[in-house]
Amino acid sequence: MYMAFLLPGIVLALLATFITQSTFRKYSKYGVSSGLSGAEAARRLLDSQGLTDVEIRETRGFLSDHYDPRTRTLNLSPDVYNGASLSAIGVACHEAGHALQDAHAYVPLHLRTALVPATQIGSNLYVPIFVLGFLFRMPGLITVAILLLAMTVIFSLITLPVEWDATARAKRLMVSSGIVTPAEGQHAAAVLNAAFMTYVASAVTAILTLLYYLFRAGFLGRRND
C-alpha cells in the first residue's frame, strides 16, 4: 500500500534527477563566449546588483550548490565554481538569484529559511511518532506525526516559488550583465529548467506521503489493517 501511494513520486523523482544530471553534463561541454567561470559569473552578477559583500566559496559535492542567508555566502561545488561552461554559469547565476532574493527581502525565501529547523525535526521524527501512536492506539501521537509531516509538505511547496523566482532572476540577469549571449542564455536556462523539476518531484512525493499517512490514520476513507 505504501509503495502504491509513493510510486508516482518515486518515478517522477528518478526521472527528474536523470534529466537534471544528463542536461548538466550535456551543457558542461559547451563554454561561454565571455570565458567566465561559474564563480566569476556569480561575482559579476552580484556586483552588478550592488551585492559586493556576498562571499563566494567553493564547497564539496556534485551539484551541492546553495546560498546560505545566515552567513550571506554563495557556496558552489567544484564543477560550478571552476567550470567555464553553460551548465556552471547557469547554476552559479541561479544561486546568485537567491542572494538577490535575500537582499530584496523576498518573503517566500525568508519563510522557507525560518521553517528549516522545524522541517528537519519533523522529517526525522514523524515516522517513529506515528508508529508509537499506531502501536499503542494513541490518536494524539498520530495527530502530532501528521502535523510534523505536514510541515515538510509546506516546506516543499514554499520551495517551488523560491526556486522558480531565483531561476527567473538568473535567466534575465545573466544576459543583461553580459555573462552570456541571448543564445547562450537559452541553453543555460535549459539546465535550470531541468533542475526545477527535482523540486516539483520532491513536492509531489511529500504530498503523496502525507496522503498515505492520512489514509493509515483513518482520515481518508476507511483504514484496513
Descriptors:
225 residues; mainly alpha; 3 strands
Task: Summarize the structure in words.
72% of the residues lie in helices and 5% in strands. With 225 residues, the chain is mostly helical. It has one domain. A three-stranded mixed β-sheet has the order 1-3-2. β2 (66-68) and β3 (73-76) form a beta hairpin. The mean pLDDT is 93.
How do the strands of the widest beta sheet line up side by side?
Answer: 1-3-2
Q: Catalogue the unreliable spans.
A: none
Given the C-alpha coordinates, what overall shape results? elongated
The biggest beta sheet is recorded as: 3 strands, mixed
* Secondary structure: number of strands: 3
Per-chain topology:
Layout lengths: L1 H26 L10 H11 L6 E4 L7 E3 L4 E4 L1 H4 L4 H18 L3 H29 L3 H38 L5 H35 L9
Parallel strand pairs: 1-3
Antiparallel strand pairs: 2-3
Helix pairs in contact: 1-7, 2-4, 4-6, 4-7, 5-6, 6-7
In short:
This protein has seven helices and three strands, in the order H-H-E-E-E-H-H-H-H-H. It has 225 residues and is mostly helical. Strands 1-3-2 form a three-stranded mixed β-sheet.
